């Protein structure tokens, strides 16, 4: 069934595409009235879309200047994936000693739902479930400050979740990698778990930046 998109969703999609493609440069002001006029909508959906972009790290609000495009660059994006790879790899290593049979059953259900969402083309749900899958792995680790750091990165840089919508086969490959990670965790192969999660994150980052780089080159 085709998903209905609100005006907010449509403006959000337009703005995020323009930011990722480089049409809007870092530090450039987003003029709400002009965006509204260009897209034949009122200011309300534009403001809502910009608020969403702000929560995801694409836009920054300047009290005296209004919304501006954040410091989004492929190098910066790649650095975020590298940081997530290190932190989440270590967190998964720690989780090997706290997850039980019930936890692994729950995680596999998450992975199946991710696969189903991808099959139906619902990449928004796919991305949401993927985040929940990873945070579920780390939920009970004893180093609570590490968990807070990981949660903050997911929240602040929601841009990283766009990999599924940008890279066509990433969701399917990601589900396969998830299952391999779970098997390694069940076997308590600590070094292999940490390495697998790091590679999982770095691969996602490389695929996403490569796709965006190709889009930018085609502009």
Please give a structural write-up.
The protein is mainly alpha-helical and 219 residues long. It has 2 domains: 7-69, Arc Repressor Mutant, subunit A; 74-217, Four Helix Bundle (Hemerythrin (Met), subunit A). 71% of the residues lie in helices and 4% in strands. The chain is built from 10 helices and 2 strands; from the N terminus they run αααββααααααα. It has helices spanning 7-21, 32-39, 43-55, 74-95, 101-119, 123-138, 144-156, 163-166, 170-186, 190-217; strands at 59-62, 66-69. It has a two-stranded antiparallel ribbon. A hairpin with a 3-residue loop joins strand 1 and strand 2. Helix 2 crosses helix 3 (43-55), helix 4 (74-95) runs antiparallel to helix 10 and helix 9 runs antiparallel to helix 10 (190-217). The model has no long low-confidence stretch (mean pLDDT 89).
Q: Layout of helices and strands, plus pairs?
A:
Blueprint: H1 7-21, H2 32-39, H3 43-55, E1 59-62, E2 66-69, H4 74-95, H5 101-119, H6 123-138, H7 144-156, H8 163-166, H9 170-186, H10 190-217
Antiparallel strand pairs: 1-2
Shape: elongated
Poorly predicted spans: none
N-to-C order of helices and strands: HHHEEHHHHHHH
How many β-strands, per DSSP?
2
Distance between the termini: 32 Å
Averaging pLDDT over every residue, what do you get?
A: 89
Let me know the CATH homologous superfamily of the largest domain.
GntR ligand-binding domain-like
Radius of gyration: 19 Å
Question: If you consult CATH, what is the topology of the largest domain?
Answer: Four Helix Bundle (Hemerythrin (Met), subunit A)
> How would a textbook summarize the main sheet?
2 strands, antiparallel
The portion of residues forming beta strands comes to: under 5%
């Amino acid at each position: 069934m085709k998903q209905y998109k609100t005006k907010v969703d449509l403006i959000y999609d337009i703005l995020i595409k323009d930011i990722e493609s480089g049409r809007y440069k870092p530090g450039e002001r987003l003029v709400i009235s002009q965006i509204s006029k260009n897209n034949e909508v009122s200011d309300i959906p534009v403001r809502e879309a910009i608020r969403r972009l702000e929560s995801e790290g694409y836009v920054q609000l300047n009290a005296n200047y209004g919304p501006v495009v954040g410091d989004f660059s492929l190098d910066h994006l790649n650095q975020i994936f590298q940081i997530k790879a290190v932190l989440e790899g270590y967190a998964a290593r720690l989780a090997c000693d706290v997850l039980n049979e019930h936890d692994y059953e729950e995680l596999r259900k998450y992975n199946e739902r991710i696969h189903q969402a991808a099959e139906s083309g619902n990449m928004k749900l796919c991305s949401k479930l993927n985040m929940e899958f990873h945070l579920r792995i780390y939920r009970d680790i004893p180093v609570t400050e590490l968990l807070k750091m990981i949660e903050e990165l997911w929240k602040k840089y929601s841009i990283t979740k766009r990999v599924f919508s940008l890279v066509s086969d990433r969701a399917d490959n990601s589900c396969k990698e998830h299952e391999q990670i779970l098997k390694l965790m069940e076997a308590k192969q600590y070094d292999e778990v940490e390495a697998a999660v790091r590679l999982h994150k770095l691969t996602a980052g490389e695929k996403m930046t490569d796709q965006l780089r190709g889009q930018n080159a085609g502009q």
